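Extended Data, panel c. Modelled sequence:
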Amino acid sequence: MDKGIIVDKVSMVYRGLKGRVEALRNVDMKVAPGDFVSIIGPSGCGKTTLMNIIAGFLEPTSGQVLIDGRKITGPGPDRGVVFQQYAVFPWLTVRENVEFGLTLSTNYRPPAERKQIVDRLIELVGLRDFQNAYPKELSGGMKQRVAIARAYAVNPKVLLMDEPFGALDAQTRQFMQEALLDILDRERKTVIFITHSVEEAAFLSSRVVVMATRPGRIRTEIPISLPYPRDPAVRSSPQFIEIKTEIEKYVREEFQRHREIPV
């Protein structure tokens, strides 16, 4: 039975050249199956640290993260990760990049099944005409579509996305947001999405989590009542503007606190 993700009193302390740094303190969060949760907050509030713990790349100093009742002890095929950098293999074609995870022992699929999966995903992300191209021949948005397709290929329950559109120009970024929602409408996943953009968080999410500045904590959670699928025109609606204003209020307060905290 799917129980979703439970972040249970997670704290993270680093010890560096400047001494002890408390990145996260007693973070509690629940993400139900099928939710799209965006995490927003000032730089240094622990957003990426929290995502890396959920991904299994880091072990928390205290607390735990559960997926469907099982404690996370490391990376696993139930979680796909998409980074801000274009994390594609430059020596592989689009098709070979998407297929890569399916050739590894953890997610191995026989050639005929791999072909079916890759064909479907390349079509899904709109790259059929570029399936034999190499990353150097692709735009930034295309590279991120390859990264999303590769994460989808291993059929994870959870998609973890760390500012995946942050490096794109405004027009491409908006297109990628709409493309992501279209993909999710057809291939539903649970998503945790890090962003610095209030508008992006409001447009994509079913819920927005605002993190407090150091040490990272959950300041508030804001449900987004806009129905899916979301038409781009919703961005100019009074309801959307009201939601943005509420999120911005909390984010501005935390940015102000961040400026006041001595480094």
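The chain has two domains: 1-78+161-263, 79-155. This feature is highlighted in the accompanying rendering.
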